[in-house]
């Protein structure tokens, strides 16, 4: 599956006599599609442009970014990486695009558009930080503590890294030569911009007849896209959770229809329940896996650890002080330099962890505490540093009450506790968890279009299909504050906090 070690790809020109090493790309030879075996999708094949991107250090980095962050500390099988998810998303993007082309020749979907869909699926997660979505939490918290506006997002970073890897690996020349000799099989600068738009789901300036292409990888209209299909399937496979929706049926029933002047991907009316199951799967994964109370504890501890160590210890590669937050923030600037992008690309799960755990903690109590937090995660020991404790949760409110913000809830809890059990205010962690079906409080299926067999070109909403309300939840969003405790706590604290949280829930 491409390189097994991303560090080798820059050295291959010196080792082409070794049959085990793929020779450098040639402008006058278009390699065949490459076959991969995937545990979720089985045999898949990718275009030589995609394979050339895979065989770069920037893409190989995704092998070292866990898809589920710290979930493996709870679910041992959850060690899958962004690498295989990216290959799976590329495969599904091409499969869906090819189905639409075969079923609707009038769309005139070109080889180049199918290639760009595949490449967008492949590269949509290049910009993830260490431990995947956890890094977004770490970055936002750092921005808040520094009083700065967040600039970095993993989607925008993916676009930057794609352009960067094409440039630094000299792929632009090869892709241009392939395009000149085999039209539709290479890549131009305009094609790269198109792929970046597909990654972002940015339809600004897009022709109405091509709007549907931007619903394949990152569907901003409904959230129903191949990225979700792959990670729902892959994450369920990793943690041993049954996946209730069938993406093959969605692909097989997909069709492009015109609605309000724009083209959209719609599905057969009989797939309505399957679509609901897909969005329900999102809620199930967030409840049972991503926001399991133990995962909330683990992520709070690691976030504290990185905050304590950042800018205080030497980096694992000996390149000066650790600058995790600033490296991310600088790479997220619109005018980030190639060096700043390279610095971000160097951040992987293992590199970050080693930088903290192998640091010299002498005369640095904050660094020692950071290392103890990592150790506690693995040993589950109470000494010298116990795991944080989950005390309960309170619904989030938007009416200005105690549940409307982290600060007001923390103040209310502290005020309600007796002095003899009251913890230090800094030991109380209040963390927002927002679980929904993909569109906040709204039903996401209302934004999906359907069609009937007798009228394949007439777009219909779920409401027009008259869904029975009994199969739907009363709410599509559950926003709550999880309350954790960093320190062991005094005797009787748990009981007082439990009564306090119940009282606050009644107030809400």
TrEMBL record:
Residues 78-241 form the HD/PDEase domain. Residues 1-26 are annotated as: Disordered. GO terms for cellular component: nucleus. GO terms for biological process: dGTP catabolic process. InterPro entries: dGTPase-like, HD/PDEase_dom, HD_domain. Coiled coil: none annotated. CDD domains: HDc. SMART domains: HDc (SM00471). GO terms for molecular function: dGTPase activity. Pfam families: HD. Belongs to the SAMHD1 family. This is HD/PDEase domain-containing protein. It comes from Rhipicephalus sanguineus (Brown dog tick).
